[in-house]
Design brief:
- The chain is α+β, with helices and mostly antiparallel strands.
- The chain has one domain.
- Helix content is 31%, strand content 8%.
- It is built from one helix and two strands.
- It has a two-stranded antiparallel ribbon.
- The radius of gyration is 14 Å and the shape is elongated.
- The model has no long low-confidence stretch (mean pLDDT 83).
């Protein structure tokens, strides 16, 4: 959902949603920051 620009596709878990969703198509710089910060939160011992 964060990476794709696809439109109107099923939510990845049928039990959580009964509607279609749209991809956000976030730029790589935003995705890298998001994924990197999440990794640091989960694994604080990794190098920045």
């Amino acid at each position: 959902m964060l990476e794709t620009e696809d439109e109107y596709f099923d939510y990845y878990r049928k039990r959580d949603a009964h509607w279609k969703i749209y991809g956000l198509g976030l730029p790589d710089t935003v995705l890298q920051k998001h994924y990197h910060q999440n990794a640091l939160a989960l694994f604080p011992s990794i190098e920045e």
